[in-house]
TrEMBL record:
<dbReference type="InterPro" id="IPR013106">
    <property type="entry name" value="Ig_V-set"/>
</dbReference>
<dbReference type="InterPro" id="IPR036179">
    <property type="entry name" value="Ig-like_dom_sf"/>
</dbReference>
<dbReference type="InterPro" id="IPR013783">
    <property type="entry name" value="Ig-like_fold"/>
</dbReference>
<dbReference type="InterPro" id="IPR003599">
    <property type="entry name" value="Ig_sub"/>
</dbReference>
<dbReference type="InterPro" id="IPR007110">
    <property type="entry name" value="Ig-like_dom"/>
</dbReference>
<protein>
    <recommendedName>
        <fullName>Ig-like domain-containing protein</fullName>
    </recommendedName>
</protein>
<dbReference type="Pfam" id="PF07686">
    <property type="entry name" value="V-set"/>
</dbReference>
<feature type="domain" description="Ig-like">
    <location>
        <begin position="20"/>
        <end position="119"/>
    </location>
</feature>
Length: 160
């Protein structure tokens, strides 16, 4: 097991997503990797959910001499139709986000000849508020007409 470099911030990067949308979770791959830098590219990239997770949601396994874009991409069966990793952007895309997807995601990047890296991303699923409900004071008199400019007190409740 190698040492992990966690980047500039100890706190996880926060990503906001609406239910049903696509969330893009960034991972620090440590640079760009062209054809001339095949050996400098990561040998393993893993994404897990939560800091103590043992099974990866998604992994990219690169054999020596193989370009990162041609590496073997593997994902957990339960996430098969929802995950995609972009090597060029270093992002894990999560399709059709739901409130149950909220939480901490961890990307670990292993290199052959450089310190390992770790990125932490907190996915926050922002739920739209419900429809507003107007409530009137049951004690207030009914059937009163108001003139323009007169005050009317209305209580409005929104959940979400």
């Amino acid at each position: 097991m190698g040492c992990f470099f966690s980047g500039r911030h100890a706190e996880p990067q926060q990503v906001l997503a609406l239910p049903g949308s696509r969330a893009r979770l960034p991972c620090d791959l440590g640079g760009s990797f062209g054809a001339s830098s095949v050996e400098a590219a990561p040998s393993l990239i893993t994404w897990t959910r939560g800091p103590a997770a043992t099974e990866p949601l998604y992994s990219v396994v690169r054999s020596p001499g193989v370009a990162l874009v041609q590496a073997d991409h593997r994902m957990a069966p339960a996430w098969k139709d929802r995950l995609h990793f972009s090597v060029s952007r270093g992002t894990l895309s999560l399709a059709d986000v739901s409130p149950g997807d909220a939480g901490l995601y961890v990307c670990r990047v292993r290199f052959q000849h450089a310190p390992d890296r770790m990125s932490r991303v907190q996915l926050v699923v922002v739920e739209s508020p419900g429809n507003p409900v107007l409530k009137f004071d049951p004690e207030a008199p009914r059937g009163i007409r108001l003139r323009e400019g007169q005050r009317l007190r209305v209580l409005c409740e929104v959940v979400g």
